[in-house]
Structures are given as structure tokens and as C-alpha cells.
Write a structure and sequence with these properties.
Blueprint: H1 4-28, E1 39-43, E2 48-55, E3 58-66, E4 101-103, E5 108-115, E6 120-128, E7 133-140, E8 143-151
Antiparallel strand pairs: 1-2, 1-8, 2-3, 3-4, 4-5, 5-6, 6-7, 7-8
Length: 153
């Protein structure tokens, strides 16, 4: 049986090791969402949902839901503004938004983004800003526009 004096000494010696171990675990652990952009995201306007997925060593996304999926003739909206005339009859639903973007630092991916509203492709990035928030940025030269998206899955 261990003497009370020995137990006190063991407790005093093991407590700093326990605290050190917990601190190390806390610093190296991260929430489940950190670095994982995959899932369903709702635009800040609430009119589009995109599904972000892994595409090899990159990420990409497609339009998965539209608040108003049909045009004024009650037909599914098509990509009328696409710069490529051969793509103007393709449905908006399922179209790519984030073209393959590669990791560019912690919780950030860079590459190209397609804007169906004007039919143009821009240089851009997708950055996680929290567990359920992300910023999608599109740029022409030094002029950029950023929209915040909210995770919905």
C-alpha cells in the first residue's frame, strides 16, 4: 500500500503532466468542420443552393436548388447568358459554380468561379469563415465581389 506522503507526491507530479497533455490535445484538435468545405451551401440572398464536393485534390460545386427554378414560361431556367453560345440551352440546375479550386492555405481554395447571372467566369476563391459560413469571391483584375454562403446540411 502506498503511503499518503507518496500519493501526494505522485499527485503533484502527475497533475502538470495531465494539464500539459490536455493543452496539447486542445491545440492540435480542431472541430469537425475545419477544412471541410463539402456539403450544401445557401447563398446570402437565399435564392440558390450549391453542393460543394471534392474533385480529386480540388473542390468544385454545382447548383443544387433554385428558389425560382423556372422562367416566365414555366420552363426550367437555362444558361442564357453564357459566353459560349453552345451552352446557352443547358439547364442552370446542375451547372458548375465553383470550377475546380485548389487548396490555397488554411480553409481557403482558389481557382475560378462561374456566374450564371452574367455568363462569365472569374478568378476567385472559396474561404471558410466558420463552421457554417463561407465567402465566395470572384475577381476581375483588382475588383472583387464577395458573397457569404451558409451551410445548410
Amino acid at each position: 500500500m502506498t503511503a499518503p506522503k507518496d500519493r501526494l507526491l505522485m499527485t503533484r507530479l502527475s497533475m502538470p503532466l495531465l494539464v500539459l497533455g490536455l493543452m496539447t490535445l486542445a491545440m492540435t484538435s480542431s472541430p469537425a468542420w475545419a477544412g471541410d468545405p463539402t456539403g450544401m451551401w445557401l447563398s446570402q440572398d437565399g435564392d440558390v443552393k450549391m453542393k460543394v464536393a471534392r474533385c480529386g485534390d480540388a473542390i468544385c460545386s454545382t447548383i443544387a436548388w433554385l428558389k425560382n427554378p423556372n422562367d416566365e414560361k414555366a420552363k426550367p431556367k437555362v444558361d442564357l447568358n453564357n459566353a459560349d453560345a453552345s451552352k446557352r440551352s443547358r439547364p442552370i440546375m446542375g451547372s458548375a459554380i465553383i470550377l475546380p479550386m485548389k487548396a490555397d492555405g488554411a480553409d481557403k481554395w482558389s481557382g475560378q468561379v462561374y456566374n450564371a447571372e452574367d455568363g462569365k467566369t472569374y478568378g476567385g476563391s472559396f474561404s471558410l469563415s466558420g463552421a457554417n459560413k463561407a465567402d465566395l469571391k470572384g475577381c476581375v483584375a483588382i475588383i472583387c465581389k464577395t458573397k457569404t454562403w451558409t451551410r445548410t446540411n
